[in-house]
Amino acid sequence: MHILYISQYFPPEVGATQARAHEMARNWVKMGHQVTMLTEIPNHPSGIIPPSYKGKWIERSELDGIEVVRLWVAASPVKNFRTRMVFYLSFMVNAAFAGLFEKGPFDFIFATSPPLFVGAAALAISYLRRIPLVFEVRDLWPESAVVLGELKNPTAVKLATKLEEACYRRAVKIITVVEGLRKKLIERNVPNEKLILIENGANTELFDLRKEARERLRIELGLSDKFVVIYAGIFGIAQGLESVIEAARILHENTQIHFLMVGEGPKKEEILALIQEYHLSNVTCLSEQPREIIPDFLSAADAALVPLRKHALFQAALPSKMFDAWACRKPIILSIEGEAQALLENVKGGLAIPPEDVYALVNAILHINSLPVAERETMGENGRALTQKFFSRQSQAAKLAIELEKTFAKS
Hints:
alpha/beta, Rossmann fold, eight-stranded mixed beta sheet, 44% helix
């Protein structure tokens, strides 16, 4: 198959969206398929375009056999409604234009959302070039944007909803990442036969315990004798990281426990300001790291935090950072209700607590710290075994490729 893949975010940018798109495309190439990736000039989440890309409207390169077409976007380090809309719309227009003239023929377009404007670009290409559309829904948008306060204008919400529904109608197949999303789409009258469930997961070849890196990093960071709790991911609105900082404040007098936070995002400055305001010497906050060395940092920790804010919307969440941590054999402290909690409790891969409950988080950290090392390791090994069996990126790419081969063999 020859696939035109549209993902606004892609490596060298770091994040769950980027990792999923890269791993899916990379594995399809390894299976013998051809993938052309339309994506943005790197800038996310800082909004700053690196000097090596400045002044470029389009750049072509290859990554792991994927033909990557990077397009200019109106990136900005200032994050507000206006700058976000200009950012998204600039990619939408450029991706639609590039897709119309990209050399094919393509068997189908694979567009991943959010941002929902990726879907608009895919719709234009699909209609004008008469190419079937496969639409991946990682999160319901605009619903999630409204919940998080990112989208408040009623007209904008109405227009975004119409665009969302147009993508569902046009799509030959719709990919969802959790069962809860699949059920919500069925409730919205999306035919069940259109839907394919491909969950989040981890690259189990890349993510595993690295003992040498563990010892080296703990020495470098001055954490050799500490119980290290790590958060590695985006500092975003949905994560509720203020609760993590409040837990660190409460535990400040406990010199054995240390928080390691790795990443960037729109809430990073606020988190750094809180750390400074509270004079928290028990928190180390690092900048975004290349994905290939994230397993080093997970290996250096003793437990991983996977938080989200308290809202019914997130009960259908199954974050990829769960599987990254489990792939590195780390127990998880999970503050998400719903599917993620049920999975964790079923596999016995850590502790689940109510979202944004600071004292529950404090008690969970103290409890896991008090466990024998062998018991903590068993939690991590349970998670690793589950991830290898059901949530590896390799098996997910193969599963989806088989489903799509069936679909387009019939068409």
